[in-house]
Design goal:
The chain is α+β, with helices and mostly antiparallel strands and about 200 residues long. The strands form three sheets. The protein has a four-stranded antiparallel beta sheet, with no helix packed on it. Strands 6-1-7 form a three-stranded antiparallel beta sheet, with no helix packed on it. A three-stranded antiparallel beta sheet has the order 9-8-10. The relative contact order is 0.15.
Length: about 200
């Protein structure tokens, strides 16, 4: 977690009402019940003048939406950069959470443990964690995945079909989502044979 010291001052509700969507602010970096003793760069979700009483809503650069009551002394409040202010810690960057589904050919306990150890060696023992683990036997077959319009007419040819993925394992299909207005069609994998004559 990288932070830097920024000189800023806390804003009153009246000052926040004068802010627009383009004005950079700082709000609490806490997320989903995880309190962090620092701030995150953010922007209001709508111009300050549009909030009538209650909480102001800001979205951090990390995608978290924060509801702030500026008059509540127990809250972190909304801050803006000001050389005449005080120093606060601002979160500059954070990691990326990856949800991985791994297919291990011929996978057994030893191969999974060696994979886990290699990941911990590469990224750090405190970084790589197994939150949930599902071990499923996967048949060693492959499928072709197509997308078709969700409301396609019957008895039409496959010209409206788009190839989404070719030659993938069936379990991977579980983690994909079709495009809006389209549905998945899964078929046994067909090797593409090029019948073009060669000279």
């Amino acid at each position: 977690m990288n932070t830097e010291k920024v000189t800023a001052r806390r804003l009153t509700a009246e000052e926040i009402s004068g802010l627009g969507l383009q004005d950079g602010i700082f709000v609490s970096a806490g997320m989903e019940g995880l309190p962090l003793e620092c701030y995150a760069p953010a922007f209001l979700t709508e111009p300050g003048k549009n909030f009538e009483g209650g909480a102001f809503v800001a979205r951090t650069v990390f995608g978290e939406e924060i509801h702030v009551l500026p008059g509540n002394a127990e809250e972190a409040g909304i801050w803006i950069a000001d050389k005449a202010g005080e120093e606060i810690e601002v979160l500059q960057s954070a990691g990326v959470l990856l949800n991985l589904a791994l297919f291990v050919p011929g996978g057994n306990k030893e191969s999974l443990e060696s994979l886990y150890s290699a990941a911990r060696d590469a990224f750090g023992a405190g970084v790589v964690q197994r939150w949930s683990e599902e071990i499923v036997a996967v048949p060693d077959i492959k499928v072709d995945l197509y997308e078709e319009p969700a409301r396609a007419r019957k008895n039409t040819n496959s010209q409206n079909r788009d190839r989404r993925a070719l030659d993938i394992y069936p379990t991977r299909v579980r983690f994909l989502e079709p495009s809006e207005g389209w549905k998945f069609v899964v078929e046994p994998h067909q090797e593409i044979v090029d019948d073009t004559p060669t000279i």
